[in-house]
Amino acid sequence: MPAPVIHCEGLGKRFRLYGKPSDRLLESILHTIGGRLAGNRANLGRDYWALRNISFTVSPGETVAIIGLNGSGKSTLLQLIAGILSPSEGVVRVKGRVAALLELGAGFHPEFSGLENIRISASVLGLKPKEIDQRLEAILAFADIGDFIDQPIKTYSSGMYVRLAFAISIHADPDILIVDEALSVGDMAFQSKCMARIRRFQQEGKALLFVSHDVGTVRALCDRAIYLDHGALIDIGATGSVVDHYLRDIHQKVDSGNQAVFVSDRTPSPQLLPTDKANDLSRRYADFLKSVQGMQYGSGQACIRLVELVDTDDLPLEIAEFDAVAKIRIWVECLASCTVSINYKIRDRNLIPVAGADFLITGQDLLEMSPGDSYWVEYSTRLPLMDGTYSIRVSVTIPIARHEQAVFVDVVEVCCPFKILPSHLGKIYTCAYLSNEVAIKAVE
């Protein structure tokens, strides 16, 4: 196994905070005087640890996401790795050339032209003047900002700034590329071009550290993820599981801020079990509960008791032909009055959503429930998916602004794993295949 290109061990960064700017100067003066006379230190400020006890490694060819809410320490960690900041404790070792695309405004001189900044930034990244000349045309073509290249950076829009910064970083041939949310300000065409270049960077076996609030991009792009919260490392591992942990924490914080949290008793009410099928349903429920342990959460007004994926004969569906008909059955019990949508997503092996539905998109009225109500909700759909393994995510939500936001009443992150076999018609190269009609006629 190749040696890590990034090694962090017990890493921490402490900042000194003051109530007013003059306290910083006064403390420094008193510290100097006190140190000479009595060895005492005047404390006019307080220590703030932006990061503490962070340990991980990144190997060549790995793409690692760093996720967390604002203020969690993501940017501080990247600046420590890039060498912009020095650690207060612990060690960080980096092997190879690092190109860091950090916060907007960092690294460029606003009074210098874009062309001048290319030469300065490329020199800082370790390129020699001859190498810069050889790559200049490619940098200009990638940035594609036209005559603005001769204008001062201070006249650039945020999109133009990112175009130039990314073009320099990627053409410096770094061993490690660090991207901190910068691509979010570019237009769609440029973002697509950047993503294509990042894919090529990955194929070349280079290491990438990626910070983004777009969890879809994180799932699609990254091999592993690091979840930070208030300067602490909360989770590290496979991208899908870490992102789910992060989203679960966010949903719980949002729900607890919006309303009282109801604690769900995971044992269904006895009267809700049909007497003629009680034993079978109880067994299925017990198996389901065991399979989703640790992956179910929510504010608790309702509880998902059971989710089943079945075929047209109502038999469990674990292996399906391409474009097979399937039914997703969801048993929901109400614990406190609520009006909800019951939703599902089909996700691939990286937990990236590829299909799904909810009440709003299907035109179904929201379901009004009172305590003790219990419902089976059944979605019938087809599975025109690329061959591979999939799972289902089910949620009960109270929609806000037509589902642009929602209160997550109950969520089961992963259940009902299944496999899609290759299509006999030919290889499917997209996540899902949309039915088409084809017409061909000769050109007259």
TrEMBL record:
Pfam family, one: Wzt_C
Domain ABC transporter: 30-255
InterPro entries named among the record's database cross-references: AAA+_ATPase (IPR003593), ABC_transporter-like_ATP-bd (IPR003439), ABC_transpr_TagH-like (IPR015860), Bact_Polysacc_Export_ATP-bd (IPR050683), P-loop_NTPase (IPR027417), Wzt_C (IPR029439)
Xref: SMART domains: AAA (SM00382)
CDD domains: ABC_KpsT_Wzt, Wzt_C-like
Entry superkingdom: Bacteria
Record key words, sorted: ATP-binding, Nucleotide-binding, Transport
GO cellular component term of the entry, any: membrane
One of the record's GO molecular function terms: ATP binding
Family: Belongs to the ABC transporter superfamily.
Protein name (Swiss-Prot/TrEMBL): ABC transporter protein AbcA
Organism for this UniProt entry: Methyloglobulus morosus KoM1
